[in-house]
Automatic annotation (TrEMBL):
<dbReference type="Pfam" id="PF00293">
    <property type="entry name" value="NUDIX"/>
</dbReference>
<dbReference type="Pfam" id="PF14803">
    <property type="entry name" value="Zn_ribbon_Nudix"/>
</dbReference>
<keyword id="KW-0378">Hydrolase</keyword>
<dbReference type="InterPro" id="IPR000086">
    <property type="entry name" value="NUDIX_hydrolase_dom"/>
</dbReference>
<protein>
    <submittedName>
        <fullName>NUDIX domain-containing protein</fullName>
    </submittedName>
</protein>
<dbReference type="InterPro" id="IPR029401">
    <property type="entry name" value="Nudix_N"/>
</dbReference>
<feature type="domain" description="Nudix hydrolase">
    <location>
        <begin position="39"/>
        <end position="165"/>
    </location>
</feature>
<dbReference type="InterPro" id="IPR015797">
    <property type="entry name" value="NUDIX_hydrolase-like_dom_sf"/>
</dbReference>
<dbReference type="InterPro" id="IPR020084">
    <property type="entry name" value="NUDIX_hydrolase_CS"/>
</dbReference>
<dbReference type="GO" id="GO:0016787">
    <property type="term" value="F:hydrolase activity"/>
</dbReference>
């Protein structure tokens, strides 16, 4: 940040009185606005279709950078004036054209290194009427064994899917889905790529 969004004066990076972190502070004595920068929220869903004992998960192939051409769950940045659930449902409609019934929050993943928090909700597809949105090259249902694990876009997607399928084993044994939270500390590119 170089200039104040309130008065257009230059800003400097300093620790304001009573604070404990460097912030961008307007250098104009008449303004002196402190510009707080906070993590971005990424919301998405795990849309599933289950019939005759077979479960499939809907994935989107990215048509945008970062990670163009890699597979992801439908997700994106939360907008102002919406709840986390509304953001997850909107992103699922925008990226996959899918109609879903939103379930419980399933994962909350802290990605401090890129200043983000990723959250994924369980979701049930209401029908098979889905199609790629502007940010997707294609949208496809995958059984667990067919998921393109080596071509997943981000560690948060891999982590969420691994936890989801681990919970499916518990469900078959009479358990239920849990709520999972983790800190993702590795690079946001896939593990098999150079950083």
């Amino acid at each position: 940040m170089k200039f104040c969004s309130e008065c257009a004066s230059p800003v400097s990076l300093s620790i304001p009185a009573g604070d404990n972190r460097p912030r961008y502070v307007c250098t104009s004595a008449s303004c002196a606005t402190i510009h707080y920068q906070n993590p971005k929220m990424v919301l998405g869903s795990i849309p599933v279709w289950e019939r005759d004992g077979e479960l499939q998960v809907l994935l989107c192939k990215r048509a945008i950078e970062p990670r163009y051409g890699y597979w992801t769950l439908p997700a994106g940045f939360m907008e102002n004036n919406e709840t986390t659930g509304e953001a997850a449902a909107r992103e699922t409609r925008e990226e996959a054209g899918a109609n879903i019934k939103l379930g419980n929050l399933f994962t909350l993943l802290n990605v401090a290194r890129v200043h983000q928090v990723h959250m994924f909700y369980l979701a049930e597809l209401l029908d098979l009427d889905f199609a790629p949105g502007e940010e997707s090259l294609e949208v496809q249902l995958f059984r667990e064994q067919d998921i393109p694990w080596d071509d997943l876009a981000f560690p948060t997607i891999r982590t969420t899917l691994e936890l989801f399928f681990a919970d499916r084993v518990k469900i078959r044994e009479g358990g239920s889905y849990g709520f999972h939270t983790q800190d993702i500390t590795r690079n946001m590119r896939s593990d098999n790529e150079p950083t």
